[in-house]
Amino acid sequence: GAGVSQSPSNKVTEKGKDVELRCDPISGHTALYWYRQRLGQGLEFLIYFQGNSAPDKSGLPSDRFSAERTGESVSTLTIQRTQQEDSAVYLCASSLSSQYTGELFFGEGSRLTVL
Amino acid sequence: TQLLEQSPQFLSIQEGENLTVYCNSSSVFSSLQWYRQEPGEGPVLLVTVVTGGEVKKLKRLTFQFGDARKDSSLHITAAQPGDTGLYLCAGEGGATNKLIFGTGTLLAVQP
């Protein structure tokens, strides 16, 4: 797998449950981004990692949202006590470096539906 | 807060027509990228512009970065059904160099 991989591709959950979304970036990419996209709209920035650190987590909507990255590789976005307004596609992207924002390579996203 | 507004939000045209999509902000960006996204997929980079006033061409697509590096445009000549998709501009800026995406322009080219 040379590209960014995200799982699950689809997740349906009940309001109040916790969900975990996973992102496997391209090997060697130091920068990793999470975005949220509502139907037919632009991308809403959530959080950005440089290595395992998150210099910018200003886009996380509330304290129900958290993310971590380990081994400068896999990242997990966790949403606790999901609400219906959390329904969206969550996109992960990686980039070779964040010193100069080069091309972002995106996964196909995780579609979250909260009933 | 850096915001990127795109216009129009939706555009439905006939094959062969020309169109222009605009990306505007009150903030200055060190670089600006354009992506295209097809249903069920992640966005894919089309071009990056870095210098104010820069013009780049990619086949029938022409991209321009404003002189003040606050705005950009994408012009498509003789649109084809394969151009259908969501077009997104994205600006790099701020202390943490995060990439901020625009509101998106959904283009439908009818055969």
In short:
The complex is a heterodimer of chains A (115) and B (111). Chain A has 115 residues and is mostly beta strands.
If you had to describe this structure to a student in words, what would you say it looks like?
The complex is a heterodimer of chains A (115) and B (111). Chain A has 115 residues and is mainly β. Chain A is 0% helix and 50% strand. In chain A, strands 2, 4, 5, 6, 9, 10 and 11 form a 7-stranded mixed β-sheet that branches. In chain A, β7 and β8 form a beta hairpin. Chain A is globular. The mean pLDDT of chain A is 92. In chain B, the strands form 2 sheets. In chain B, strands 2, 4, 5, 9, 10 and 11 form a 6-stranded mixed β-sheet that branches. In chain B, strands 1-3-8-7-6 form a 5-stranded antiparallel β-sheet, with no helix packed on it. Chain B contains no helices and 11 strands. Chain B has strands at 5-7, 10-14, 19-24, 31-37, 44-49, 55-58, 61-65, 71-76, 85-92, 99-101, 105-110.
Keywords:
heterodimer, A: 115 residues, mainly beta, four-stranded antiparallel beta sheet, 11 strands, B: 111 residues, six-stranded mixed beta sheet, five-stranded antiparallel beta sheet, 0% helix, 53% strand
In terms of quaternary structure, what is this? heterodimer
Number of helices of chain B: 0
Main beta sheet of chain B: strand number and arrangement?
A: 6 strands, mixed
Low-confidence stretches of chain B: none
Shape of chain B, please? globular
Largest interface between protein chains, with number of residues from each side? A-B, 26 and 26 residues
Unreliable spans of chain A? none
Strand content of chain B: over 45%
Mean pLDDT of chain B: 92
How many individual β-strands of chain A?
11
Rg of chain B, alpha carbons: 13 Å
Strand content of chain A: over 45%
**What is the tally of beta strands of chain B?**
11
What is the CA-atom radius of gyration of chain A, in angstroms? Answer: 13 Å
Helix/strand/pairing category of chain B: mainly beta
